[in-house]
Amino acid sequence: MAGTFVPPTRFAVPGRIAVSNRAAAVWQRATVVDVRRENAAGTVSSFRLKVPDWQGHLPGQHLMLRLTAPDGYVAQRHYSIASAPDGSGEIELTLDHVPGGEVSGHLHTVARVGDVVEVRGPLSGFFAWPGDRPALLLGAGSGVVPLMSMLRHWRRAGRPVPLRLLVSARTPEDLIYAQEYGDETTVVLTRTEGRLSAAHVAPLLGPAQPEGGWEAYICGSNGFAEHASRLLVAGGQPVDRIRIERFG
Amino acid sequence: MTIEHRTTIEQRRPVEPTRGFTGRARAADRDPRLPPGQYDAADGWPVLSAEVTPELSPAEWTFRVDGLVTSPRTWTWDDAHELPASEYRGDIHCVTSWSKFGVRFGGASLDAFLAAAGPRPEATHVVAYSHTGYTTNLPLADVTGGKAWIVWEYGDGPLPPEHGGPARLIVPHLYFWKSVKWVAGLRLLDHDEPGFWEQNGYHHRGNPWREERYSGD
């Protein structure tokens, strides 16, 4: 935009895509059409939603989900979209059952197929990956959810560019989407192997990286995000090509 | 205003209750400090930053006020600490729907910095920016008159790096994306100019009590 003030240093990571303000502003009815368990521990499930007016999304985007009580009380949370954009009119969310969680608790223990919730989105073009350049994805726990949308999109598109995924989980029982990983993925089980380390990222950075370098996406707890981003920076990944989504 | 009119209609539309959802907090005993659509993060303080936490030491930190002012100025860490101490005790609200009650930030009022630079009469808005280059826009009236601070303390200690340390802006009456971490400066303008999140779909002002979350709200 002409005349826009540019600060002395560029924002580390510019936005990738513009979002639809209309889609972001309108609440839509979403019908639960399937519920599926996603880890052996039974603490994580995917909820498939039919959203008739869904405008489509890019991998990595999230939405806001709202529940309403009979007296008008509402609770709303942001959730990453797990499914690839596929034009089916349906999307999937994958949720941790957070202890005491008002919204995730309802969805895990009360919600069933046929129920209606409300969503608005997709939101934020910032963590989005349109599939156009090599992607290095690092996720921990349920932080793998938006990265799975990217992985599924990449596979549907016929693997047009290099993609690598590093997934950190405590134990095999905690690992989400265990059946879906292929040779593009390295799983790090922290209880037995220790945390993600320089040894995991070093072979992917430096001379081995694809031409033009990686676009890095990190998603997980703040502790994981801080740790993983420092590993990448120490390994030579440019700061302005690291995008982070932190879960509270 | 058209947008506010539309929002009013939207809010009046009866919302169909979600089967089986009662809500932990009832509307009747809802904490009056909690704006609509927010929940109490209690002891938690989520980090909502999309970028790598910069390694910025107090010795490297500076804060500049320029644009439509009579005397553009840059403060160092020591310069800023010579300003009268000022603190904010109260609540903060993030657009991602958590609120945090009764926090304390210590630093200096933004009024002290602006008084030294001397805003020109035609200045109406500011762009606040960080040492990493993040930007956000604010009406000048939202950061003057005791409504905004440059802070370097959280609770009794230094502001943690992932929360914007060594120093950040806080504008607690607006959603917290306006409260620039690792703040580097303010530029005063005679027009409104959307910053990073505002160009990416967020509301231009961000009043939590009106739920001004996204553009069009």
Automatic annotation (TrEMBL), chain A:
Residues 25-129 form the FAD-binding FR-type domain. Gene3D superfamilies: Nucleotide-binding domain of ferredoxin-NADP reductase (FNR) module (3.40.50.80), Translation factors (2.40.30.10). The keyword Metal-binding applies. It holds the Pfam family FAD_binding_6. Its cofactor is FAD. InterPro entries: Cbr1-like_FAD-bd_dom (IPR008333), FAD-bd_FR_type (IPR017927), FNR_nucleotide-bd (IPR039261), MRET (IPR050415), Riboflavin_synthase-like_b-brl (IPR017938). This is Ferredoxin reductase. It comes from Streptomyces durmitorensis.
TrEMBL record, chain B:
SUPFAM superfamilies: Oxidoreductase molybdopterin-binding domain. It comes from the Bacteria. Residues 53-197 form the Oxidoreductase molybdopterin-binding domain. Residues 1-40 are annotated as: Disordered. InterPro entries: OxRdtase_Mopterin-bd_dom (IPR000572), OxRdtase_Mopterin-bd_sf (IPR036374). Residues 1-16 have a biased composition (Basic and acidic residues). This is Sulfite oxidase-like oxidoreductase. It comes from Streptomyces durmitorensis.
